[in-house]
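Look over both lines:
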Amino acid sequence: MDVIVSIWLLVGFILCCVAAIAKLGHVIKQRTNHRINPEPWQNYQTNLIDTSIRPDNLEFVTRVEAMNRRITGGLEFMIEYVDSDGVITERVIEPLNIYRIAGKTTIYIDAFCTLRNAMRSFRNDRILAARDMQTNQEIANLGRYLWERY
């Protein structure tokens, strides 16, 4: 009986390793593609459902649609952002998507960051200040501001 359990544990371990290697290969391929394409934000696509065609009756909106929203209109914001290490940077971002992870209250903003010249995800609770670059309006809570409009 112990031999069978050991075999199952070994098989499970091997499957986990194969899955991790496949995921690593996908991440490496994705990062390589962004280096080849000098303007990755132009071809940026998400796996989000197109919410522009959702029904007016919100009872039929799926959980994915309710949690993820595409941002349109070419908005630009100047933000002060503190990363997980406590380093504060000033960035200009062009938001493309806004979302929440199921069961969480934190709002995430997927945006093109001109400082890093790449797509980045920004946690709303780490944005210290925000200003609309078109109207020069100060935004007290960028995540809530975008969430209420999109």
